[in-house]
């Protein structure tokens, strides 16, 4: 027996020796949870399923479920080509038929689970293996020979039902997009543990490793900080859809520009600096400009703000920030052309004390004392917008794009810094988006619950007699409208290029977007910021759409 086989046998023996309450707590139990979360439309059902799972599962499985549903995933041990090759071999299918099936289903993990022969064995021992057993094994076989990987994958497939295979394949591919929000997971853990949701949200944030962190350690309510990089959960605002006068007395509100950057937290603890994005990505090394701030910020400080490129305290377009995000090596030229700044607008921790429950006015005052004396251009105090009447603010809002902003943030002066999206105290009052009419020319099937419908579209504008593609969009229509467009695509497809269908250029849509920038990577010469379908223009014909010249004029006015 090989060393690897011995190691796997040890994992199996060790796992069998542990007391597992029932088979429902193994991979089968996790697969059932994923099925409920992915198919149920009721929040209460999803919440109940999560609570039930946390009450029955192995503690190490609970940690991995929290990790998987919050964006952490194990490193891939098997590549896509290997999975497809083995599936075709086991199922006895020609490669072209797998390709057609994949394009129809739209999800690799689901396609494989559907094509594999039905399980006929009565051996259900694998069903009782916990989730962490498979993840541990993936990590163990990562650098092993392909034959060893194949043996483990095929043996696992043989002993699983279709639902378990689907989840097993998802674990391998790392493509978990399940219909559960961070807030729902936090609420289920709060219900299961009786801890405050805010405590749980903080505990599961940051740079923890699910392979070495126990469930008890993860949810320990002790105020002692061992992970000095750990950020606080972000406080999010709701969109203000009504007239701001409905908010009452202007004296009760603080207004700031809503900057178009990456929301982030800057943390100085234990004489080290950490910068987190709202998506919980540690971005310190991506922006070397920030390293000098370690020497000017006091220890025990956490700032909330915006990561933005700027020159002379004026924000630069988001498109320039994108050129920096994807770079592993930042050159001197990059630093000069796109200097990154931190626009600080809130103080969450000061002198190692949590300040989130103090009113905004108190946090702002201390933030000003902290930031204003600093002479470095790398950190800026985001200004408060002065106004006396709501109609003054309405007029100022029209200058947002000139300021490099998306509108205003309106915050109640007495508000504490809460967790997640809450209504009442913080509002975002964004400017109206830019819009343009165009025609759909390509369509692809979506993913998840929309994997059987054409819901991903490419749009074009006119350039003389030609149609020039300029953007893609995946959202903005109702389920009924998506079904109507899907039917049109199936009836009017002209050509087929893999999963892409060329369709008759007849359906007109209004595309909304937040910004526009020049781009040499796109045939149109422009790139849009947050494009989405604003409405289906059934009142317009294809010859009435906007032109490439219209796009270029928008670039001149709104691009930078």
From TrEMBL:
Keywords: ATP-binding, Cell cycle, Cell division, DNA damage, DNA recombination, DNA repair, DNA replication, Ligase, Magnesium, Metal-binding, Nucleotide-binding. GO terms for molecular function: ATP binding; DNA binding; DNA ligase (ATP) activity; metal ion binding. Residues 333-463 form the ATP-dependent DNA ligase family profile domain. CDD domains: Adenylation_DNA_ligase_Bac1 (cd07897), OBF_DNA_ligase_Arch_LigB (cd07972). It is an enzyme of class 6 (ligase). Its EC number is 6.5.1.1. InterPro entries: ATP-dep_DNA_ligase, ATP_dep_DNA_lig_pp_1105_fam, DNA_ligase_ATP-dep_C, DNA_ligase_ATP-dep_cent, DNA_ligase_ATP-dep_CS, DNA_ligase_ATP-dep_N, DNA_ligase_N_sf, NA-bd_OB-fold. It catalyses: ATP + (deoxyribonucleotide)n-3'-hydroxyl + 5'-phospho-(deoxyribonucleotide)m = (deoxyribonucleotide)n+m + AMP + diphosphate. One of its GO terms (biological process) is cell division. SUPFAM superfamilies: ATP-dependent DNA ligase DNA-binding domain, DNA ligase/mRNA capping enzyme, catalytic domain, Nucleic acid-binding proteins. This is DNA ligase (ATP). It comes from Segetibacter aerophilus. The gene is lig2.
């Amino acid at each position: 027996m090989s060393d690897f086989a011995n190691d796997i046998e040890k994992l199996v023996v060790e796992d069998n020796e542990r007391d597992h309450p029932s088979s429902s707590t193994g991979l089968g139990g996790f697969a059932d949870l994923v099925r409920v979360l992915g198919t149920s439309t009721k929040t209460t059902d999803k919440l109940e399923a999560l609570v039930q799972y946390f009450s029955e599962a192995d503690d190490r499985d609970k940690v991995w479920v929290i990790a998987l549903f919050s964006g952490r995933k194990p490193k891939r041990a098997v590549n896509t080509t290997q999975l497809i090759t083995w599936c075709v071999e086991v199922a006895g299918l020609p490669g072209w038929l797998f390709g057609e099936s994949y394009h129809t289903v739209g999800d690799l993990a689901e396609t494989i689970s559907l094509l594999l022969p039905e399980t006929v064995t009565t051996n259900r021992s694998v069903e009782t293996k916990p989730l962490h057993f498979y993840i541990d094994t993936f990590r163990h076989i990562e650098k092993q020979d392909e034959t060893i990987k194949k043996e483990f994958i095929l043996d696992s497939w043989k002993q699983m039902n279709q639902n378990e295979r689907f989840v097993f394949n998802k674990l391998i591919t790392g493509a978990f997009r399940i219909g559960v929000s961070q807030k729902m997971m936090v609420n289920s853990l709060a219900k299961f543990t009786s801890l405050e949701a805010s405590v749980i949200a903080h505990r599961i944030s940051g740079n923890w490793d699910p392979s070495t962190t126990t469930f008890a350690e993860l949810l320990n309510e002790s105020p002692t900080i061992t992970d000095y990089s750990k950020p606080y959960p972000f406080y999010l605002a709701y969109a203000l859809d009504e007239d701001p006068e409905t908010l009452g007395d202007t004296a009760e509100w603080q207004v700031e520009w809503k900057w178009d950057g990456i929301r982030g937290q800057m943390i100085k603890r234990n004489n080290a600096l950490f910068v987190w994005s709202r998506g919980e990505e540690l971005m310190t090394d991506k922006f070397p400009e920030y390293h000098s701030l370690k020497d000017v910020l006091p220890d025990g400080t956490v700032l909330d703000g915006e990561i933005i490129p700027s020159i002379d305290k004026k924000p630069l377009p988001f498109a320039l920030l994108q050129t920096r995000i994807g770079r592993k090596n930042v050159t001197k030229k990059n630093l000069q052309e796109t200097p990154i700044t931190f626009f600080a607008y809130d103080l969450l921790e000061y002198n190692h004390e949590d300040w989130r429950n103090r009113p905004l006015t108190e946090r702002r005052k201390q933030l000003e004392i902290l930031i204003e004396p600093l002479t470095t251009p790398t950190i800026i105090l985001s200004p408060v917008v002065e106004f006396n009447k709501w109609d003054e603010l309405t007029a100022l809002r029209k200058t947002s794009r000139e300021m490099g902003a998306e509108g205003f943030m309106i915050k109640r002066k007495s508000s504490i810094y809460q967790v997640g999206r809450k209504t009442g105290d913080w509002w975002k009052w964004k400017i109206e988006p830019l819009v343009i009419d165009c025609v759909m020319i390509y369509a692809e099937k979506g993913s998840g619950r929309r994997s059987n419908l054409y819901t991903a579209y490419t749009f074009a504008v006119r350039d003389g007699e030609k149609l020039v593609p300029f953007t893609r969009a995946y959202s903005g229509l109702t389920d009924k409208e998506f079904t109507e467009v899907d039917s049109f695509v199936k009836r009017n497809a002209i050509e087929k290029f893999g999963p892409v269908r060329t369709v008759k250029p007849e359906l007109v849509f209004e595309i909304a977007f937040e910004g526009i920038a020049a781009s040499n990577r796109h045939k149109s010469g422009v790139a849009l910021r947050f494009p989405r379908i604003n409405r289906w223009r059934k009142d317009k014909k294809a010859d009435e759409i906007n032109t490439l010249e219209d796009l270029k004029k928008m670039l001149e006015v709104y691009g930078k």
